[in-house]
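Try this one yourself first.
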């Protein structure tokens, strides 16, 4: 009885009826008013207790999974019974929701989600409309799914009476509780906690779309449209030379270069320009060829990035790629994550982007003239 009293206290319950012995049914309640019934012997030793204690009317206790008489009265269905005494499930769930909601901001940063606006969810929990790095917008419940979730399991009594209808039986002797689907509005599918954007996950599982994106990055081609998760789509491109073209996924993959103009001329432009543009809210370091004006115009029109902070042209072969790689690698090592794509950062990091680029040029090409230095 002393062990039972200590267990009740540890789990946050209060005994509303005073037990006279280890076989008596005791009503417990938590601070929030949720109630349950247990017996001391069942709470402390459920397997032993269930063989000598009958469940009270309207409640159920553990019966050994292998026992023949484990059936719902009047049916041939087998029943499942919670084990032992545990903390109050509604209260534990509420604590989890509060902790997971508090951790959502860190989860959004870790998964590169940008919060666009508040939203409503069917569960009544706070939700957010978010945008992933590739521009897909969707609504997600504002909780961190990485926080371990208290889930009811076989052999536990979580603070409210359960009947056999609360459980379903599978071919496995261990019953499986019915958990309402869609309670938190997470995007479904494997790996959704690490990659909550369902569209990005489907793109990553489509070989042709993966290859199209790979070629775009390899050829320094900007994809100006938000890609869908289907092969039959046409997207606008801006190649490293600043040419604006549109191409379907299948057509682009049939030729060596995604850009129709470069492909038609049979020339793959070599990046010889490094630039940094901003608009006060985002900063974009990048590379181009020629005089770089084609790309700069595209950034201004498509993203409003009209302020040119650096423009270095006529670089030696390979230099533009080297400085770009240097800047992006250092930003990643310092934990500076992009807001969009792979190279669009918060304008708060503009000075750091310029410092990294200037340092590289000072160390490697100190005599290269800069067209724009403000």
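Now uncover the answer:
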């Amino acid at each position: 009885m002393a062990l039972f009293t200590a267990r009740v206290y540890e789990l946050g319950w209060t005994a509303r009826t005073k037990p006279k012995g280890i076989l008596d049914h005791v009503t417990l309640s938590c601070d929030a008013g949720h109630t349950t019934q247990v017996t001391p012997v069942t709470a402390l030793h459920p397997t032993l207790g269930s063989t000598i204690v009958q469940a009270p009317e309207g409640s159920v206790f553990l019966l050994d999974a292998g026992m023949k008489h484990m059936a719902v009265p009047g049916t041939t269905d087998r029943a499942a019974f919670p084990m032992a005494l545990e903390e109050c499930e509604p209260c534990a769930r509420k604590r989890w929701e509060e902790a997971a909601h508090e951790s959502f901001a860190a989860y959004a940063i870790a998964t590169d989600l940008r919060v666009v606006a508040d939203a409503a969810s069917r569960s009544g929990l706070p939700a957010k409309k978010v945008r992933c790095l590739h521009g897909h917008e969707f609504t997600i419940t504002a909780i961190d799914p990485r926080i371990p979730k208290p889930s009811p399991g076989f052999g536990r009594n979580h603070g409210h009476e359960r009947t056999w209808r609360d459980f379903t039986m599978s071919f496995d002797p261990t019953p499986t509780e019915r958990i309402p689907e869609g309670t938190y509005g997470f995007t479904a599918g494997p790996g959704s906690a690490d990659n909550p954007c369902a569209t990005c996950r489907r793109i990553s599982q489509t070989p042709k779309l993966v290859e199209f994106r790979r070629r775009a990055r390899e050829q320094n081609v900007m994809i100006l449209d938000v890609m869908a998760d289907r092969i039959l789509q046409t997207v606008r491109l801006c190649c490293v030379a600043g040419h604006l073209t549109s191409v379907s996924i299948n057509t682009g993959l049939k030729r060596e270069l995604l850009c129709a103009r470069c492909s038609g001329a049979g020339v793959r432009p070599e990046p010889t320009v490094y630039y940094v543009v901003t608009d006060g809210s985002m900063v974009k370091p990048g590379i181009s060829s020629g005089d770089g004006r084609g790309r700069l115009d595209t950034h201004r029109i498509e993203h409003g990035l009209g302020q040119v902070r650096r423009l270095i042209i006529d670089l030696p072969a390979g230099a533009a790629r080297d400085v770009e790689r240097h800047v992006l690698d250092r930003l990643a090592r310092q934990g500076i994550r992009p807001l969009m794509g792979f190279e669009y950062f918060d304008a708060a990091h503009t000075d750091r982007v310029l410092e990294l680029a200037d340092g590289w040029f000072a160390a490697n090409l100190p005599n290269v003239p800069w067209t724009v230095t403000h």
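Discussion: The CA atoms of residues 168 and 176 lie 6 Å apart. Residues 319-333 form the longest helix (15 residues).
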